Q: What sequence folds into this?
């Protein structure tokens, strides 16, 4: 990793997701790569949900952060393949989601259950009870489902598997 | 040109098919492989854009808040897909247009979406019937396209498939819930299926430009999957097998013009307006 690449990763780690402002775009796994090529820093980002309105804001924030860190010349491009998956969220990212009150995405096996229509056991991020119920598989943003806890009765968001 | 099949009590029986016999306004050369691919990108993008717009019309009008949110979430997913397909079309066209051009600067005859996606929302059950039949096809088509030899279509399909899995689950669950529900919800769901059924076959009638690019022979699997859900919903599959078509080549119902009039008003009245 070149010095400028390292600087870019450091500055990108401070760029927050606009809708979940406790997790950085690096932790969310949407910075696909940073590579210095012939003096130009090439940054590849990948969208989470294809219609997520935050995608454009994120791209703008990435460009602004790189400009502020005086890392030009640089190019920011969008790549689709391989498609973003919730398994690309880092461990620290998952922890921050939980502390923020959003249940982080469950493992692949739960993912498969979700896709085959079985009930998911998502622990409440507040009281940790597993006695929870999905209210709707669509929530406040494209990436979340809406759940409620049947023990502490709090509604909560679940970052659904993709 | 197919005539509209008469039957009773269909809200779309009053559609007058818009037929222009004059100038062919499609300026894209249909013969080359390159423009075939562009037409496929427009067909898939137009499906996503128009259905996304229809679902967006439910915003603030859903039967309950959660379903209002569900429909607008699906609308967002679809509009995101339209953007990806239009970006590809713009690249293939090579005239410096962007995705907004394809959404806002084309007219009815240029649109290549399936007729089913432009039909009005009707009641919630009509919207569910439309979404269910479309999702079941969309999911199958994307599953095949995810192995396409064309890298660009392949990556969009792989990305879209994950989201469409959720759409299909949502619309299928609602068919079952309404069908296997109260007498009233069952009657409404059956009527909605009957009325929209004529529009479910167009997806399986390939246009010239899609041959060799989009998967074929999906109808049998689609029918098996649709039958399984419809039977779980204690409903019956309409017997009619005569199908409407035309959307893929720009021959639309009267509804598309009204959608475009609303959707395109601002960029046409204030060209190049920005926030």
A:
């Amino acid at each position: 990793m070149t010095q400028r690449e390292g600087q870019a990763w450091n500055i990108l780690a401070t760029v927050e997701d606009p809708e979940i402002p406790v997790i950085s775009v690096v932790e969310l796994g949407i910075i696909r790569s940073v590579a210095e090529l012939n003096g130009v820093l090439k940054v590849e980002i990948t969208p989470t949900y294809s219609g997520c309105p935050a995608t454009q804001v994120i791209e703008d924030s990435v460009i602004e952060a790189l400009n502020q860190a005086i890392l030009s010349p640089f190019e920011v491009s969008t790549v689709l393949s391989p498609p973003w998956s919730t398994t690309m969220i880092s461990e620290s990212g998952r922890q921050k989601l939980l502390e923020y009150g959003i249940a982080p995405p469950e493992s692949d096996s739960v993912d498969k259950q979700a896709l085959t229509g079985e009930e998911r056991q998502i622990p409440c991020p507040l009281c940790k009870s597993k006695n929870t119920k999905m209210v709707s598989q669509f929530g406040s943003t494209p990436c979340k489902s809406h759940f409620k806890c049947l023990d502490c009765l709090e509604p909560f968001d679940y970052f659904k598997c993709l | 040109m197919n005539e509209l099949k008469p039957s009773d009590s269909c809200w779309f029986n009053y559609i007058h098919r818009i037929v222009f016999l004059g100038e062919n306004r499609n300026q894209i050369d249909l013969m080359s492989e390159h423009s075939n691919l562009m037409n496929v990108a427009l067909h898939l993008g137009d499906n996503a854009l128009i259905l996304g717009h229809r679902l967006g019309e439910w915003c603030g009008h859903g039967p309950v808040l959660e379903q209002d949110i569900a429909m607008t979430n699906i609308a967002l997913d679809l509009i995101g897909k339209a953007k990806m397909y239009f970006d590809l079309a713009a690249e293939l066209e090579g005239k410096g247009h962007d995705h907004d051009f394809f959404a806002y600067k084309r007219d009815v005859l240029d649109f290549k979406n399936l007729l089913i996606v432009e039909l009005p929302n009707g009641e919630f059950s009509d919207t569910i019937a439309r979404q269910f039949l479309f999702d079941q096809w969309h999911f199958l088509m994307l599953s095949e396209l995810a192995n396409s030899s064309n890298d660009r279509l392949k990556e969009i399909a792989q990305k879209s498939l994950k989201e469409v899995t959720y759409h299909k689950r949502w619309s299928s669950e609602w068919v079952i819930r309404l069908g296997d529900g109260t007498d009233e919800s069952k009657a409404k769901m059956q009527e909605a299926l009957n009325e929209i059924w004529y529009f479910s076959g167009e997806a399986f009638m390939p246009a010239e430009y899609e041959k060799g690019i989009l998967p074929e022979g999906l109808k049998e699997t689609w029918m098996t999957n649709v039958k399984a859900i419809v039977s779980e919903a204690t409903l019956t599959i309409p017997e009619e097998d005569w199908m409407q078509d035309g959307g893929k080549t720009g021959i639309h119902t009267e509804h598309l013009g009204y959608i475009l009039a609303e959707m395109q008003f601002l960029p046409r009245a204030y060209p190049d307006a920005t926030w």
Observations:
- Residues 44 and 85 of chain B are 7 Å apart (CA to CA).
- Chain B has a mean pLDDT of 90.
- Chain B is about 55% helix and 0% strand.
